[in-house]
Write a structure and sequence with these properties.
The protein has 338 residues and is α+β, with helices and mostly antiparallel strands. It has one domain. Helix content is 28%, strand content 10%. It is built from 7 helices and 9 strands; from the N terminus they run H-E-H-E-H-H-E-E-E-E-H-H-E-E-E-H. The protein has a 5-stranded mixed sheet, with helices on both faces. It has a two-stranded antiparallel ribbon with strand order 1-2. It has a two-stranded antiparallel ribbon with strand order 3-4. The longest helix is centred in the N-terminal third of the chain and has 52 residues. The termini are far apart. The relative contact order is 0.15.
Length: 338
């Protein structure tokens, strides 16, 4: 007998399909945070390794010269901060008349000797005040021989930084940097900067190892800086538009090149210069969750979570070179600074 009934085609019903889609969505939702954590851990590791290389470069510089590099070398021709303007942080031989940043001085120790040579040649060994930043010509930014100061140094950029680090100002092309030397406890913004400085690095400084009496393993030398401030869009926009000076090759102002422990890590304090938050410029911070990477004088890198005001005293103790009251009485400068 022939069965005339048609066989029903096998397949997914709409409900079954929706269930499968829902399960996949749940799995993706569970996996995404894990993927993000892995990505963030990789970014933190890269920052750690970058800071370790910076520490090695600083140590090699100190071995070659007998003192640490200055935060920047500058006379009062371009300087905006009062200590340089009024002769409180004078230049000393052999750097009299020369103007360049700490990163420029460290280039030979970061396997960038060719960039250093090109910058020196274009600027008359960094002594030509009539051609400030001649080595950052925007029209030739892609040519490292003509615009060596416009080259991106991946070692100095944290992968967690969400913004493009290119800045054009007038005829110059600058590249941002994610790591900066730490000046000490004072605000680094030029309107408020005070002296004497109590950290290792400051304008025209020449600090010896013996001058860090707090101990190299107890003193922060470099730290991360963040270009983001999600809690204050006005500040974040100001940082993005006014931080041209946050380039690895700029010099002349403390807020561009130096960090401090005036505020806790990742602080969004806005007391000075509101709504632009001048006090935000010198804050140690990062886009990593809960803290920032810091390089200590012994070359070790630590992720510090000193983000509250209650922890500020500890952070400040870690950023001075010789306790809370060093300044003029510190005998370990190569030459008197004040």
């Amino acid at each position: 007998m022939i069965n005339t009934r048609q066989k029903r085609a096998h397949g997914f019903t709409l409900i079954e399909l929706l269930v499968v889609i829902a399960i996949i969505a749940i799995l993706i939702g569970l996996l995404l945070p894990a993927v993000q954590k892995v990505r963030e851990a990789a970014a933190r590791t890269k920052c750690t390794n970058s800071l370790k290389q910076v520490g090695l470069a600083v140590a090699n510089y100190e071995s070659a010269y007998g003192y640490y590099p200055a935060a920047y070398y500058c006379n009062n021709f371009y300087a905006t901060d009062p200590p340089v303007l009024y002769g409180k942080a004078p230049q000393t031989s052999p750097d009299i008349g020369r103007q360049y940043s700490i990163w420029t001085g460290l280039l030979p120790y970061l396997e960038q000797q060719n960039l250093y040579n090109a910058m020196s040649s274009l600027s008359g060994q960094f002594t030509d005040p009539s051609n400030q930043y001649v080595y950052t010509n925007a029209s030739t930014a892609s040519d490292p021989t003509k615009s060596p100061g416009s080259q991106k140094l991946s070692l100095l950029i944290c992968p967690s930084e969400p913004f493009d680090m290119n800045y054009t100002y007038k005829t110059y092309q600058f590249i941002g940097v994610s790591y900066c030397p730490v000046q000490g406890t004072q605000d680094t913004y030029y309107k408020y900067v005070t002296y004497p400085y109590d950290g290792v690095f400051y304008p025209n400084s020449r600090t010896r190892v013996a001058g860090v009496t707090d101990g190299l393993s107890n003193t922060i030398y470099f730290a991360e800086r963040s270009y983001t401030d999600p809690g204050n869009p006005t500040t974040q926009n100001a940082i993005r538009t006014n931080s041209v000076g946050w380039s690895w090759c700029t010099y002349a102002s403390t807020q561009d090149l130096l960090l401090s422990s005036e505020n806790p890590i990742n602080s969004q304090t806005c007391v000075k210069g509101a709504p632009y938050c001048d006090d935000r410029y010198s804050t140690i911070g990062s886009n990593h969750t809960g803290g920032a990477n810091t390089l200590f004088g012994d070359g070790s890198v630590h992720f510090l979570t000193l983000t509250s005001t209650g922890q500020l005293q500890t952070l400040q103790a870690l950023t001075t070179r010789a306790g809370p009251t060093n300044g003029t009485t510190n005998p370990q400068e190569v030459s008197p600074q004040y």
